[in-house]
Amino acid sequence: MATIFSRIIAGEIPCHRVYEDAMVLAFLDINPLSVGHTLVVPKEEAATLDRLSDASAEAIGRVLPRICRAVLEATGATAFNVLQNNGAGAHQAVMHVHFHVIPKHADGSGLGVGWKPGTLAREAGAGLAEKIARAMAGPSRA
To answer: Over 90: is that where the pLDDT of 114 sits?
Structure first.
């Protein structure tokens, strides 16, 4: 799976790196929604979050809060969004897992979000929760 992120990780395409370790690379987005918009990418090639190994997920989880704090400190923003899309139908453009850290600035720059909540019926919720819990008991991606 060769994506632009694979090529950036391999050093074939330059980037403005803000963090790197053995499993994670973070760099500035070249098409930012706001100043400080940073991408956090596992070095493991997985198209969507459900395909990512537990080890890579742990590595992302360990550094993502630190990267968020650093972006806030460096930009002076006091609010931010973390966005992660999975699949073309969910607006994923690069088929390599990545998280966007998008500062929200006083000028209004940043991520705009539309939210259209529905309702969850009691019986439907109970059945769905049970079904998801059973799926959680299945094999993990180590």
So the answer is: no
d(CA 80, CA 35): 11
- pLDDT tens, residue by residue, 63-112: 999 999 999 999 999 999 999 999 999 999 999 999 999 999 999 999 99
Task: Give catalytic residues, as residue numbers.
Answer: 98
Q: How far apart are CA 71 and CA 18, in angstroms?
A: 9
Residues 34/104, Cβ–Cβ less than 8 Å: yes
CATH code of the domain covering residue 131: 3.30.428.10
Number of domains in the chain: 1
Q: Taking the CA atoms of the chain, what radius of gyration do you get in angstroms?
A: 17
Nearest Cα to Cα of residue 28 among 90, 115, 36: 36
Q: Which has the closest alpha carbon to 3: 98, 100, 95? A: 95
